[in-house]
Amino acid sequence: MSQTLRDCDTACVISDNQLALILEDTPETGAVWAVERIRRTLVDIDSEIGLWAGIACYPAHGMEADEVMSQAVSALPRAQEWPKGRIEVAYSD
Predict the structure, then answer these.
(1) In the prediction, which pLDDT does 66 show?
(2) Domains of the chain by residue range
(3) Which of 1, 5, 70, 78 is 20 to 30 A off residue 12, Cα-Cα?
(4) What is the end-to-end Cα distance of the chain in Å, rounded?
């Protein structure tokens, strides 16, 4: 995973099974690719691992940190509808 995250990026633990990634100056497509690289790394370790992600980016999904986080959290349940994992991007207004 160290090849996916840069020094300027931040990984935060939200709960026992939830993490947040703050990817500096990263557009939506870049965020999707970063999460996909992490997912592939985890699957290489254990093929039974699933990863579900909700993605939101500034400024497309919000102008304030709380707004962007809320949008990512709202995208997560759509990803969790899939059995083996999925990445979902928040809806743009």
Answers:
(1) 94
(2) 10-89
(3) 78
(4) 32
